């Protein structure tokens, strides 16, 4: 299929696609849309940034056209693991939903629950939600799933990895049998087998990436650094011309690094699960506009964030899982663009990083660098920061956290992890 016009899909959706400049479906869209539009259960895997949202979204909206939603009773549900991904799904589908008269709403934690309940009482066709907040609304009686005809799990593997399996299972059990189920993810492994066997009926399986390796337009660099140089190197990279997302393991490490960069003249802002949703939304908007040039984040930013023209992602702390590496890196080199992923690796992390790259089926360029190495500037655009303190951009202020561990301390160089906590919705 080389054109959206070839699909059995409502004309308003085709016209909206044309207005958005989309005429040819991506590989995952071409593979799954004919089956999804025909009402089949679908199990799909494709790399991040490849168009999965429209792959399931267009099929949902085509079915919802001309239907009537009763108060508190949506007709379709999309579950996503993070607030950012849920909001991005809703935003991406908004022009298409309006073209066919479909009302959609986002239901996530960190936002006033009474407003979300009010939207549901007004009647919506499609709910895009994180599992925990949707469960809260169901328990309050503000959302009833007895009329849901289509359900989608987006990034199902991350939902299981984050401990959302009980909530997801409980939600799917309340959806009437016989409806359509679609499960999409950048990676599929045995963690989602239980969901597939239990809730999908004879699914059509499409895996358009033969390996889990990242896209060919993405360069991978592993930089061996000393503990003494690590913070200075990260600071110089953050001071580059252009935007960068930098990942650390813990919220405390993120906050401390953001403060350090601001004190050195870099427009930086933190993004992690400890911030309110309005703060997180403002920070992302500022980063997309360029008011913030260095986004310092935990894995909460590893999925569901799309920024046009982002050409560099830096792992200040190497991820522990190859899937996390792929999803962090997937913030760049999207939709055919080029980009680089740089990982700073201490001596005691080299063996683990080699194993991780092997599992990800990636052969990185490996080099040892110090602060003054010209290769550092060539690969990342690193430069000396101005050293002139700057303020947190307007609207991105946050409470200071006391007792933060120093940058580069802790078992993996980014602050102690502390006890495991229940996943944030």
UniProtKB/TrEMBL annotation:
Q: Which residues form a coiled coil?
A: none
Q: Which superkingdom?
A: Bacteria
- Identify the SUPFAM superfamilies for this entry: P-loop containing nucleoside triphosphate hydrolases (SSF52540)
Any one of the GO CC terms = cytosol
Q: Which UniProt keywords apply?
A: ATP-binding, Helicase, Hydrolase, Nucleotide-binding
One Pfam annotation reads Helicase_C
Does the record carry Nucleotide-binding as a key word? yes
Region of interest (Disordered), ranges: 378-425
Q: Per the database record, which ranges form the Helicase ATP-binding domain?
A: 33-206
Regions of biased composition (Low complexity) lie at: 385-395
Q: Which family does it belong to?
A: Belongs to the DEAD box helicase family.
**Motif Q motif: positions:** 2-30
Mention one GO molecular function: hydrolase activity
Q: Which InterPro entries match?
A: DEAD/DEAH_box_helicase_dom (IPR011545), DEAD/DEAH_RhlB (IPR044742), DEAD_box_RNA_helicase (IPR050079), Helicase_ATP-bd (IPR014001), Helicase_C-like (IPR001650), P-loop_NTPase (IPR027417), RNA_helicase_DEAD_Q_motif (IPR014014)
Gene source species:
Nocardiopsis aegyptia
**Record's keyword annotation contains Nucleotide-binding:** yes
- Could you tell me which residue ranges the Helicase C-terminal domain spans? 229-380
Question: Where does the record place the DEAD-box RNA helicase Q domain?
Answer: 2-30
PROSITE patterns, alphabetically? HELICASE_ATP_BIND_1, HELICASE_CTER, Q_MOTIF
Q: What is this protein called?
A: Superfamily II DNA/RNA helicase
